[in-house]
Write a structure and sequence with these properties.
about 140 residues; mainly alpha
């Protein structure tokens, strides 16, 4: 399941940026290449799934907004490829996104869809039963 669409990338980063990153056949560049965008989204989704599969049942029924942003940052980094400097905003966003996914896979961060969290199962009080003590102060008094 894709967590992001082409329109989601356009909404986040602008159509001009996607045209410049994806159009490899027209001079001057003029259109967004759906194949290139689709491959970047699929690769970013696969990376996210690799981390999420460890702690969640996939596919997710609802995509949390934070996951959409995370996949968008990864897909953008993939679209930039070698053109992304190691100190650029794109690389920092990619590193934060992968760090976030790593934290989710470790259980440090929990993904929610923004809905109300389910209430914990109710129950009675904890009951403990154990056999009678074998040794006590009175039974060990002579030792």
């Amino acid at each position: 399941m894709a967590y992001l669409t082409k329109q989601g990338l356009i909404d986040r980063f602008g159509e001009l940026e996607l045209v410049q990153l994806t159009d490899r056949s027209n001079i001057p560049v003029s259109t967004v290449d759906d194949v290139v965008v689709g491959r970047a989204i699929d690769d970013a989704t696969a990376l996210a799934d690799g981390y999420l599969a460890k702690v969640l049942a996939l596919p997710l029924s609802v995509v949390p907004p934070v996951l959409e942003k995370t996949v968008a940052d990864i897909a953008r980094y993939y679209l930039y490829g070698d053109r992304a400097d190691k100190d650029s905003q794109i690389t920092r966003a990619f590193n934060e996104a992968t760090s976030f996914l790593r934290d989710v896979s470790r259980g440090l961060v929990q993904l929610t869809d923004g809905a109300e969290a389910p209430k914990p199962a109710g129950g009675g009080q904890v009951q403990v039963s154990a056999p009678a003590r074998v040794f006590s102060r009175d039974s060990l008094r002579g030792f």
